[in-house]
C-alpha cells in the first residue's frame, strides 16, 4: 500500500475567502473590427454547432500581474480591433431567420463586440494565489452575453483593472458559435497582436479557416437537429435562441453555498498514476493511459468518494476534438465547433473499491476507443436525447483541455497568473487546463459545496492506492 501526494490545498477558512468581491463598472463600450475590414460575413451553423444551440455560454477568466496598469486598456482595445479583422464573426450575431432552415451567424458592417471596463481594489495577490474561493467571487469579472429569443451575440468581453497590481480579461462566448479550440486561437491571436503590435502577421496556426463545406453531412444531421430544436417545448416552429435552463439531473451546485477549488496534477504525480494502473493491469496493455485519461479518472474517483454517491452507476461525459478524426480530416484552424461527445460509464461500487482508478481508466478507455469504431454513431439522438441522466447516481462532465495551453497566452505582460473556466459554477463540469507552473502538469477546476470540496481536498492530497 502506498500513499501518493499531489499538489493540493488546505481546508478553506473564513479568513481565506473573499465574499462580495467589489468591482466598479467604469464603462461599457463597443469595439469594432478595424476600418477597412470586409463589410460582412455569414456562416450557416453546422450540425456540430447546433448541438450547442441553447447551451450555457462559456465564461473564462485570465489574470495578469503588472505594476504598470496605465497603458493596459489602450493596448488591449487597439489590438482587439485589429484581431477582429481576422475573426469577424465574433463581432457578429446569431439569428434564425424565418426563411432559413438553420440559424445563421452573421457579421455586418457596424457590428461590434461589447467590452465592459471595470476597476477593483480587491487584494490582487490573494485573488491570484488562493486555491479556494467562494464560487460567486469571480462572477463580477466576466460579462453577461446579450441573448434574446431573436438574437444572440457571439461574444462579450470584460477588462478589470486592479490599479498598480494587474488586470483580468473575462470572456463570455456562445457555444453554438465556437468550441474551446477556436476560442483559444482567438485569444492567442489577440495576445500575439497585442504583444508584437503586428496587425497582419498572424502565425498560420492562428489564422481561422471558415469554409463550412469541409464539414460533410450526408445523413442530414443539420436539418434533423434544426427540426428537433424547433419542436422543443411542444412547439413546431421554436426558433428561440434563449439559453435553456440547466437540467436538474445535472446537479450543478448552488453557487451561494459552494466554493471554487483548483488542484494541480504534477507530471511526476501523473506518472505515478500511470505506473499504478500498469502494475494492476500487467496482462492488459490496451488501456488508454494518456494524461487526459489518468487525470480524468483520478478526479472522477475522488468526486464519487467525496460526494458519497449511492447510485448503482455513475457517468463521465467527455468531448473529443474531431477535426483530425473526420473523413476526410478538416484543417486544425477550422472556425466553429467540431466536438464529439462520449460517455464513460462505471459501476459506483467499482469506483469506490480498491481498484477504483483502474475501473475509471477502463471506462474512459472504452469511451475513447468508441471514437475509432464510429465517430458519429448514434448522432441522430444527440440533440433529442444525448443521455438519460436518470440512469446514473451522478453524471460528471469535462470542460476544456490541457492541450489548449492557456498559460502560454502572453499579451505582453508574460504568462497569466491564473486562468479559470468560470461557467462551471453553472454547469457543474470539471475544468481541465495546463498548469500555471508548467512542467507538463495539469490543473483541475471544481465548484462544489463546502463539505464536498473539503472531502475532495483530503482525498486528492493523499488518496490511498492499494
UniProtKB/TrEMBL annotation:
Organism: Rosa chinensis (China rose)
PANTHER family reported in the protein's UniProt record: PTHR31625
Keyword Glycosyltransferase attributed: no
Enzyme class: transferase
Keyword Isomerase attached: no
Keywords assigned by UniProt, alphabetized: Acyltransferase, Transferase
EC number(s) given by UniProt: 2.3.1.115
Protein name: Putative isoflavone-7-O-beta-glucoside 6''-O-malonyltransferase
InterPro entries recorded: CAT-like_dom_sf, Plant_metabolite_acyltrans
A single MF term (Gene Ontology): isoflavone-7-O-beta-glucoside 6''-O-malonyltransferase activity
Amino acid at each position: 500500500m502506498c500513499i501518493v501526494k499531489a499538489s493540493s490545498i488546505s481546508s478553506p477558512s473564513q479568513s481565506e475567502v473573499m465574499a462580495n468581491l467589489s468591482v466598479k463598472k467604469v464603462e461599457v463600450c463597443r469595439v469594432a473590427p478595424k476600418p477597412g475590414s470586409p463589410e460582412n460575413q455569414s456562416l450557416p451553423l453546422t450540425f456540430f454547432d447546433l448541438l450547442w444551440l441553447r447551451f450555457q455560454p462559456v465564461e473564462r477568466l485570465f489574470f495578469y500581474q503588472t505594476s504598470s496598469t496605465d497603458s493596459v486598456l489602450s493596448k488591449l482595445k487597439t489590438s482587439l480591433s485589429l484581431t477582429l479583422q481576422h475573426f469577424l464573426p465574433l463581432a457578429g450575431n446569431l439569428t434564425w431567420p424565418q426563411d432559413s432552415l438553420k440559424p445563421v451567424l452573421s457579421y455586418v458592417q457596424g457590428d461590434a463586440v461589447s467590452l465592459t471596463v471595470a476597476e477593483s481594489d480587491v487584494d490582487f495577490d490573494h485573488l491570484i494565489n488562493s486555491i479556494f474561493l467562494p464560487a460567486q467571487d469571480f462572477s463580477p469579472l466576466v460579462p453577461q452575453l446579450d441573448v434574446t429569443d431573436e438574437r444572440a451575440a457571439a461574444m462579450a468581453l470584460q477588462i478589470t483593472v486592479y490599479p498598480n497590481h494587474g488586470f483580468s480579461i473575462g470572456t463570455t462566448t456562445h457555444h453554438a458559435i465556437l468550441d474551446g479550440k477556436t476560442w483559444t486561437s482567438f485569444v492567442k491571436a489577440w495576445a500575439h497582436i497585442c504583444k508584437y503590435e503586428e496587425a497582419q502577421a498572424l502565425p498560420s496556426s492562428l489564422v481561422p479557416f471558415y469554409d463550412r463545406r469541409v464539414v460533410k453531412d450526408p445523413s442530414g444531421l443539420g436539418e434533423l437537429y434544426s427540426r428537433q430544436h424547433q419542436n422543443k417545448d411542444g412547439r413546431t416552429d421554436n426558433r428561440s435562441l434563449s439559453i435553456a435552463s440547466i437540467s436538474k439531473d445535472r446537479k450543478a451546485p448552488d453557487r451561494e453555498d459552494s466554493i471554487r477549488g483548483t488542484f494541480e496534477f504534477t507530471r511526476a504525480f501523473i506518472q505515478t498514476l500511470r505506473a499504478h494502473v500498469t502494475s494492476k493491469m500487467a496482462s492488459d496493455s490496451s488501456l488508454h493511459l494518456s494524461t487526459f485519461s489518468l487525470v480524468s479518472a483520478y478526479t472522477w474517483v475522488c468526486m464519487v468518494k467525496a460526494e458519497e454517491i449511492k447510485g448503482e452507476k455513475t457517468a463521465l461525459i467527455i468531448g473529443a476534438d474531431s477535426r483530425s478524426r473526420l473523413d476526410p480530416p478538416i484543417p486544425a484552424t477550422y472556425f466553429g465547433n467540431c466536438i464529439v461527445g462520449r460517455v464513460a460509464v462505471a459501476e459506483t461500487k467499482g469506483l469506490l473499491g480498491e481498484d477504483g482508478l483502474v475501473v475509471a481508466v477502463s471506462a474512459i478507455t472504452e469511451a475513447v476507443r468508441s471514437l475509432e469504431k464510429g465517430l458519429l454513431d448514434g448522432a441522430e439522438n444527440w440533440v433529442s436525447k444525448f443521455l438519460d441522466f436518470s440512469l446514473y447516481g451522478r453524471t460528471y462532465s469535462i470542460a476544456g483541455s490541457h492541450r489548449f495551453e492557456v498559460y502560454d497566452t502572453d499579451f505582453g505582460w508574460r504568462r497569466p497568473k491564473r486562468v479559470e473556466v468560470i461557467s462551471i459554477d453553472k454547469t457543474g463540469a470539471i475544468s481541465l487546463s495546463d498548469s500555471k507552473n508548467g512542467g507538463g502538469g495539469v490543473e483541475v477546476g471544481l465548484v462544489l459545496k463546502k463539505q464536498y470540496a473539503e472531502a475532495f481536498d483530503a482525498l486528492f492530497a493523499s488518496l490511498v492506492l492499494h
